């Protein structure tokens, strides 16, 4: 008997987004149905095809339509014949900003049975969360191009770091660390970036005084990238600006196997607007259409969505089924050394949801 309905907008987008998102919604449908919950999906065909057809990635009332939902579930954006800045700034980034999704939460976990890509000490496991600032920083519209096609041509782009923006992302990171192992690492580059990064360091350090039980270590981004390859198991919570957080999360995901297991949540923690959940990976034109994409990142992102919507128990059940499927090469995809295709992984996860 269904006693509760969730209204969720689903945007598969481009490339493998059209393969992993339907797989993930099947898993979410089954897991919620078992708990007496129904998901009312609004499927939206927005993305690069829409851009080629109409000149925009989503309709003019797109944000208003999304705002009628409890959450947004996104696949991937990007197509080889569409400039990447058009696809990102026409869909993904406007949604993050319109809904003030200032936290991009990206968990990185080493799953049992999946061989890490870096050598770890005996018994060590990678389990970190990257807290990426998601609405300002280096992803800024402020700037322009001058003298196009002339010898004096230049491009100028302003980074935006606000006190409010740094304070709120730092507090979110410290809150997560307080619930976990109690360590925050802050990514910086305050030796070379003379204005914004010393400001970032200063504000993060100020917020740290509110959390005496949590340690803070600031590390220059170049050294941090090296540490993440050499000792990924030592990180607990990493807080980073928009660009640094994006780069580090791909790097961290690679250490534990592949971007195929990198999930993310774009959160408005105050819940004034819908939050958006998406795999970290893009549209992967090199493998799209072959049915071999890894659906785990999308499925885990969907589990994060259910957790955010108040169904932590269902989310945990999905993650258990994902964990079990990853143990065997027969039920994981080739990016993780397995032999399964998207359908076989999805079937294994669906079977793992059923009471044994
Ligand atoms: N899963 C959505 C997607 O396609 N992401 C690829 C991407 O390039 N994202 C950039 C970003 O997260 O800033």
UniProtKB/TrEMBL annotation:
Matches recorded under PROSITE patterns: IDH_IMDH (PS00470)
Top class in the EC scheme: oxidoreductase
SUPFAM superfamilies in the record: Isocitrate/Isopropylmalate dehydrogenase-like
Catalytic activity reported: (R)-malate + NAD(+) = pyruvate + CO2 + NADH
UniProt keyword Oxidoreductase present: yes
Protein EC: 1.1.1.83
Named cofactor requirement(s): Mg(2+); Mn(2+)
Record-linked InterPro entries: ICDH/IPMDH, IsoCit/isopropylmalate_DH_CS, IsoPropMal-DH-like_dom, TTC_DH
Keywords: Manganese, Metal-binding, NAD, Oxidoreductase
Keyword NAD listed: yes
Residues of the Isopropylmalate dehydrogenase-like domain: 7-349
GO molecular function, one term: NAD binding
Gene3D superfamilies, per database record: Isopropylmalate Dehydrogenase
Family stated for the protein in its record: Belongs to the isocitrate and isopropylmalate dehydrogenases family.
Record-given protein name: D-malate dehydrogenase (decarboxylating)
